[in-house]
Records
---
Amino acid sequence: MNLYKVLIVDDESIIRNGLYNMIPWSNLGVSDVLTASCAKEALKIVQDTKPDIMLTDICMPEMDGLEMTKIMLEKVPDLKVIVLTGYDDFKYAQKSCSLGVKDFILKPVDETSLIKCIKLQIDHIQSEIQSAVENSIMSRKRMIENQREFEKSLIKLTEKAVDHAYAIEVPEGIKFADNCEYQVAVLTPEISENSIWNQHRNLLMMSVKSFFIDMVDAKNSGWTFQNSDGDIVVIFYVDKKSENAEEQISKLQEIINVEFDVEMRVGIGPVVPNMSRIKFSYGNAREKCGIKKLNSDKHHNSKLGNDYPSKKDKLLVLKEKILSSFHDTEAAKEYLKKYINEVKISGVSKSIAEQKFYDLASAFYWEYLKTTGNPADGRLETLITTLQTNDLENCCVFTEMFIVKLMYTNKKQMHEIIEAATVFINQRLTEDLTVFTLAEQFHVARNYFSRLFKKEMGEGCNEYITRKRIEKAKHLLTVSRLKTYEVAEQVGYHDTNYFSLAFKKNTGLSPTEFRDRQNNPE
């Protein structure tokens, strides 16, 4: 049941309090009843809380209720306004209607009539919400149908056998960006023998394709589809404003690795000047796909784990380890102690030591700002002064304090972000939820959010969303007579085949098999 917010605006406290206490708000599904004594106070409440329904008087000091209503409806167009007034004046009623006021009630207010009026507005809100959900589902269905037709056209464009490049005709419906070059990437998963994805490869490919559509297609950076072999193909637009294909894929590869615990083998074709050469870039990418692999761990071109770097490189190696352990507080602290100790025993001058400490602190602070989205402040300048005015031993202590404080500030934010994200997910299972939309919702970098969610929850964000959706689907299949496609829609899947694959991976049964077992237990 949805819980609604109501705002009561009247300059007479006896009326405000009377309305507040007279109506059985909880029985109507109202969770919050707010009050304001004037238009200025009411406008502030509307801006901060976005109520669903407002009951207001007309005659109030400073600004009357109708003028206030006009401003409010500009800010919150969906607000349902009910005017309560002691003036039986047609002009007031006429102006109220022209502003979009939902009802006009004369004082003294009859309790039964007012409850009926409020209930009617709540029914309207529920109807609008349901209509919006249905429209969203229909829009998504049309998009999926268009996507399927579009993929057929893209396969035709990249795989069509022709003798001459100029003979390629662009299939109807494909609209590429103008004035840019193109580059094709082909991706296929490397699935180990004991991986669960061996039995669910189709689901994996649909999920990975969805990730690329969110990352590439939704940003108008190119087109994503599956070729006739089921591999992922991405046609990138190449221009001065865009990142190249390898940079874009590398970013998403890290998220795919975290979310699905799988590596992608990648082939990237050459940049071609026009659409007639896309087939050449595609063919080249397919050939490379068998040998080229983008390793998401960019820091390890050689194995540094147990090797013994030279003295000259040891601080650099430790610094890299500290930064790469940004999300693992205990590991980062261990490497930090080793770094500080290495500076102390190296015999360098104090000024060089200050530079080494500042170099590490500034790099860690930059990582902190980049991943959390927090604004920069003056703490680095404070650290410089501290390092310059203290001896080496205290410089070691203050550098460690500086970095550790950042670690735990970040850790606290990590917990708060993920806690809020899980609440957000559980309240919106019918909506289009992805790592990307959630990262934007909580104003953090996508890769950071993906790693953070898995660290805090012990499972990837996509896995968590899927698990919660399947739990709800199991309940609906057990207690309702909804058809499979209707259950899919109720839990956020607009492609029934995708839903069935996800359901079987999580339960070992198809939705139909699950329902049969629930209805006919052995």
---
Amino acid sequence: MVKVGVIGLGTGGITFISEIRRLRVPCEIFLFEKRGLKVFHPCSIPEALEGKIELQSLIEPFGLSGITFMGQAREVDPYSLSVGFENNGSIGKVSLDFVFVATGGDVVLPSKNFFKATKYDDVEKIKQLLPGAKRIGIVGAGILGLELASALSVYPIQIEIFEAKDHILPELIDRGLSEKLLKKIDRKNVFFNFGRFVNDISGFDIVIFCTGFKPVSPLPFEIRVDEYMRVIDPRSGKPFDRIFAAGDCITYDFKIPRVATIAAEQARIAARNIKMIVQGNQPEEKYELFVAPVLVKAFSYEVGKVGRIHKPSDLQKFYLDLKVLPFDERKIHIYAELDKNGIIYELQAFCDLRSEVRHIIDISYISMKKMISVSDIRRFELSYQPEVCKFPDPVTSFAEFVSRRLGIL
């Protein structure tokens, strides 16, 4: 039985433990987490601030048994595969056969007057200050900044969002689609300030920082990984055979959304490759550089994206506004990039009606993974509409329009 150390109990750590158990890998799991045996759900922070859920529900006890809890990892020696730790004042070190790192990232505050949007203690303080607040400043109009602004806009408080780029969700969606979404946001107490770098601002009762994210590495160097999710040794440039990582603790040379879906997919791949090594084989499962389905809910809209990280330069680009229902004027707004054969390389969408965005994003993700062209999507009629309904659903409408434009119908 091998000894596997898991550092971090966020999405990556939980997914890895669940997958390694599902695969029935004969191992003993040693868990290192500074919060103890507790799971923190940062994705639900906007709902907690809005009052939809209790703040205390963001943290819950870790439910899996049969795991040895070691305390907080203090140092990791990648060459001896040992982890130094601290638990209730006691210091120790344990040698392991494998190490999996999922320590996430953190926001570096430029001013002590700011609150971190992802820290439980800060969210607790924000909740306490809300009843007397009149002005809230949010730095960053990315995923978290937009979701927080949406949640806090239900209060009679003026909210100002500061974004260094010139549009909302700058790391997630195309500028043209972003501008359409911004025009749809109708909240009289929400104001956007673009093109402004903010180190310190005054005149606000609460300032929440939602940008400046940096990976957290317990290793003595930045974590970079190969396609099998093995950590790269900066000395040799080659991967460590038995150290894996997933999620926000990884440093990339390209832009990638810092979202739970990517961390979970990477963690599953790491677990499967560890199983192969334990069985005496070489790792085989690779992480394909996809932006796994990302969904954002803010201001009554659902925004989604899926795509490849690296794309050819000669892709065709399409903007579409498609009606969803025959008796409703609301539309799903789409931006897509495809090659001449109709293979989707990226698709973004937003809509305020039902789960239209999730549907088209999921179909697009499957088609990208399987290299299915839009003409085949149309032919397969991947629709949820009954035959009696002659009004085509957005997936069919999108596939038919793009197929005709590309001349592959």
---
Amino acid sequence: MCRRGAAGPALPWAGDMETLNREALSDRPHVLSATQMSEISSVLTGDPREYGIACALWTLAVVRDLIAARYGVRLDRYGIPGLLRLLGLWPANPRHWGAGIDPEVLAQWRRHRYSELRRQAHDAGGTLWFADIIPLPSGVTVVTASTPMGPSVFAAYRDTPVTDAFPDFCRRLADSGSPWLMMTPHPVLSARPVARLRAEGTVRMHIVPRTLDAAVSAAERWRAARRTALRTKHTRADLLRALHAAGAREVTTLCRAAGLARVTADEVLRGAVLHPETLDPWRTLLDELTAVTRRLDEAADERERLVAACWKAGVSSVGLLSRTGGLPRARVERVASALPEVAAERERLLARLALAAERGEQPRDELAVACWSAGVSTSVVVHTGRLGKPRLARAVKTYGEGVARERERLLAALGEAATAVRQSTLVRDRLLRRAHAVLARVAARAEACQRAEERARERRNELIAHCWRAGIRTISLIERRTHLHQSVTYGALRASGIDPPMLRR
């Protein structure tokens, strides 16, 4: 008995399986007694050869002849299935070969791969058998096999692990020739005893693959991996932008922490934060960094303002301002160069002092103090005004005491501003180290997710190619089930060295 599809060769109902799956004709009491049925159950879970039967496996005809010979009861063709069910040696629900396999996948396999296997078995002198393993609630494992046009054979094993039952069935089946087993996926096929059988060449096994289901799962995993990779990539970019906006202005250090080239980082920084909600785990860090950066900028601005104020107040020593304000000399010189009016006023006052000294005008003390107050050094004032240092000191004490106090106040304020800058810098550096570590972890996760996405894509392409080699050669079916674009499917096949025919749409 066989079942035919719309295209391709016939697949069997596992030979006599159609008879075995037939429902019992009635609920009338069985003609065999309970003792006889117990004996039959014990016999059917053993080897037929132990009871003088020539074959190594049971068939419906052998069971019917055995019952007729032993008990003188001749059961009809449909009486055997009911007996097997009563004995707990066959499932109550119909069981057909290929159950659990997608019908479209089974049709593709029948149309392409099965034809090739049938030719190969014929050329090698082997016999195709469609095998199945059926565990029953009664603790019995039934292993069946059938040829497309011949009867079914089966063996029943009570309280026997399937890893022992299936290899025994294969050896008994191999006694009748060279079997080629067609199997649906089952965990026992990866067991060591079965692997030894296959290595010895006792049987040849061909598994109807669930490759399309695996390809569907792989496509789903790839989509999930791609979403995760994109999400982590966007998180890294948003975190980079947020840190830069919060005060991490050393782009080179940020690039190194983010694992990006400078050109790529510059391009990222030109954009805006796309997903602010992804930054919630680091919101406290970003707020602290923003606040301390604001304080640091305010303290730095105040320091520069005080440097300018000191310069205007006559503190003309670049070294003193550099040491007090914690600034490089070049920075102080830039602040001073931004105040040309102070230098012009000094030159004007020195010119007046020089003219007064040349004319011998008396007194010149107030003019000398004015030059000193404008920032002209004591030695220059003494030399230009032709005054002695003690006289200048008395004049400063008389006329410039307020200027000296203002200078001291400004220098003290400058020192305080410098201390505030140093403290804010320390806090900011500590926060920046934390920020760089966070960015490095996010970057590492982004790289790991990218590698995972690449591995998932390779696995997806591998399984799509495996579907093609397993006989599933309808591009539209693969596309429909995996929800992949046609170009992705063709690209996966071509990446594996397969040149599929172009599909016109």
---
Amino acid sequence: MDIIQFDINACVLCALILMTAIAHKNVRLSQNRIFLQLLAILLFSALGSLMGGIGHNHVIMGVDDFFSRESVMFVSTFIYMIFHVAIPVCFYLYVRTVLGIDLTRVSDVLITFAPLALAYTVLALTPINQGIFYFEKGMYHRGEYMWVFYLVAVWYTVVSVNNIILYRNNIRMSVLLSFFSFVILALAGVIMQFLNPHMKVESFFNAVVLLMLYITIERPGDYIDSATGLQNDHAFYVNASIRIKRGREARVVALSIDNVEFLDNSIGYEATTELIEQVAHFLDSMTKSAVTYRMSRDMFVIMIKEGSKITHIELMEAIRSRFTAPFNTSRYSVVLFDCMMYVSWPDDVKNTEELSRILTIFAGKAGHRMKHEVLASSIDLERDVRRKVVDSLLRTAISDERIAFKYQPVKTVATGLFDSVELKPMLESDELGLIAPSEYFDMAEDNGTAVPIARHIIEVCFEYMKDCGMAGREINEFALPLPNAFLLMRSAAEWIIEKAIKYGVDPSYVTFELSERTLVDYTYSLEENMHALNTAGFSFMLMDYGNGYTDAEMMLEMHLKEVCLNRDLLSSAPMSDKADTLVKCAVEMMKNLSIGIKASGIDSAELEEYAVKIGVDKVQGFQLARFQSGAELIGFIKGRREKHAGLLL
């Protein structure tokens, strides 16, 4: 008598998993569809096995009429065999889909479906009651062609395991264990049922492992964006890496929606989310020749399917055409501004890592705003690598003593004396050499290291001024850069004043250099600190004037002592009438506002002559004096003073 309890449990377990899976309507992964197919196939296989067991038990109990023995056994065995053969096939397809392996080549199709076709051919041409399973004298018997189905099952098991091993780095350990568990437990169930056909445990073992697959893989949050139902960035990189590893073309169009933060503040977060969901729906339904992924709140990636005839130009034109019309919410009608970039492998990137870096830079690249398209070739990956090196150095710059303090003398045009000094706290790197503060200050503000680095720079500078006794002697001004993040602290002014008192530094000799970013970040806290420092006697200089953002009204509120002209604008002025006019207008305006003007980057006698001619107050550059160490600086200043005095005599 067959033990049908295991088949009953298998049917119940599969039905419960099926009901739960159907409830996840927002899950739209391709692997989810195959999972549902695997689940349905296993359910029908278990039902066939259950029907056969019930029929067998009826025969043993003496119900030996034609319907009970022949029809029930024929139908149940046929159903069982049809779907039982499909289980390893569907599992193999499921493994391939989870790993992101596409079925595109003819060889792939043959490897996948030829064994299945063979099995079904044998099943169709062989009498079931003799060739596969048949019942005789109250016992199940295996027919002569049963070995074909075992061979097919072994084939799919081998190729599935091979794929799992080959692409194991692309999936989590829990998924990997679930895949292997399916193979091992299914094999164990087959062996147990082979040794004792009446146990009928194979379907139950498969159902248990199917439950494990559902728990570990079919979770929407792993590969699905919950808001839109699209595949997420994790799914994209898994699929892209598989395609690139297999040496197949990868064509990607990245789309960024501009001003999402502005929309959040103006029409509200919920309305903006509704707009983004409309964009997602449009991109997903636009074509069947591409798959859309949502990488972040305002960024999507469309990967063109391999072998598709659609070009990226056609795809981008269709997107651009739609974005010319407004997207409508329940309350608003908004025209969204989009920016796109096309990336392909192997033309633009060499591997998945480069693809990830290009997309990351595109997502955070402020310079792509107000452009309809960015070229992948315009993104400097070497600069991105440099940024990562600098970012890593900044985190341990103080403890590893990576900041080298260099001093560059500044010449006053009116007296011809080097009576000012600019501090250059250079970041030392074994790979990149010396890195200027103009490069690493912004990164320090982004990664949170700007405040401790600023404190270190100020304290070292004040201590140097005290030890050398330079204030009031050879040097009239000591300029040092100050990141905005430090001035945004409420206690910044108090801390600086305390350190000046501690080291006996006269504030009137200290000028803090501010970047043009200060004009953007000019808030109450920054204004309050600058006012307190001005009152205490410290001065401020705006660097790189003529580049980036400039607000004249804020410049007046900041009570600047000096501005430093942008070196690129200044160097082009002698050769460009427009640049010459801009520079002269800037100098005249500053003089009318009683703001001093410094020209930096003077690397030739001709440029120094031009700067003096237009009326700047101070000049600085390698043409005049190179960077000095702390020990060299005083000697240089004294030597130049003596030389200047000798010339006067």
